[in-house]
Specification:
This protein is mostly helical and 386 residues long. The protein contains 19 helices and no strands. Helix 9 packs across helix 18 and helix 11 runs parallel beside helix 19. The structure holds iron/sulfur cluster (2 copies). The site of one iron/sulfur cluster (SF4) has 16 residues, from helix 6 and helix 7.
Amino acid sequence: MNNRVNPDLLLNLKDYGAVGAEICFNCGNCTAVCPLTSDEHPFPRNMIRLAQLGLEEKIMQSTDPWLCYYCGDCAQTCPRQAEPGETMMALRRWLTAKYDRSGHGARLYTSEKAVAWTILRLALITLAAFVIYHAVTGFANIPTDHVALNTFAPVMVVWALVLLHGLYLGYRMLSGVANMARYVMAPITAETKVPLRLYLEEFKTFVLHFFTQKRWRDCGEDRSRWFKHLLLVSGYVTMLVLVLGFLWWFQTDNIYPLWHPQRWLGYYATIVLIYAAGEALYGRIQKKDQMHRFSHATDWLFPSFILTGAVTGILVHIFRYVGWPWPTYIIYVIHVMAMIAMLDTEVGIGKWAHLFYRPLAMYLEAVKARIRQEQLEPELAPAGTD
Ligand code: SF4
Ligand code: SF4
């Protein structure tokens, strides 16, 4: 990498949601009040300066945008109303698009038409798959005298398609992870070989931050943000595990008793998702909190999808319970259309990308700290490993 200057970087960042970075005069007030900043990571001031100078490769080599959890404290003290927190958010979107080599992420963040077209296209493809399946097997074979969801949408076929889609999305996420690691480690790997041992030993940092998201607790005065975020993650991870790993068990024509895990796991995930998505949408409509004052178009997508998925899931459950075949089937198709569109616009390029990139940033910083430590104190490295 070199330090090529992109004079249009600030302008580009506006498409990603930056609103005042050009009027920042680098006083450093924001960094002074940020609860997550440190001597090595003096954000957001340093990131805004790099953006003003157009040094995009320096930004790509930094983990700082991922170390900010958007409490908004910095915006309160900015004498220029340069909205530093919003620039950090815009940088996270911009970096996500940079890590995604397909260009899909960049299109989604910079064009509302691309977002609308992507959702429509995925919904129509899903609908077409159902129509083609029933055209081949015979529309007359759809049970209409009782609800038989697994005849309308055979669970093993749906599961196989979900897993195929999951493989593609997993590849997209992992290639983004690999690209971020390559950019962040580039200044070090250009000078020294990083032993695999350090990556393996520090992997615990990734696991810790992935599962606890604990830096949310230190971001801002409202400690409930961490808990709410953890609750939201627990909700969609529960649903993801049920769908990816156990769809054959979760999508059934049997109505189980209330105490059965298939029901309470589904209810838990649904309640949590409705609460978290509803609160996020309400906050964005109200615009009272700093983090909700400026909403990029893609910020509305994730909670809207989550709410659509939860409500259609409840309706399928109710219609199945009361024995209405066509309402069950129609709402089920809408549910699948929404979920496919959500996964395609979120995994690896939307909010689900943050879930990986934040702990990855902590992990890579831990590896870098170990390298520095072993360079200063070579006796710490096991003999014969480097
Ligand atoms: S964003 Fe505001 S507080 Fe931060 S350095 Fe710029 S002018 Fe100062
Ligand atoms: S939004 Fe909060 S965590 Fe992010 S830079 Fe500003 S003060 Fe720091």
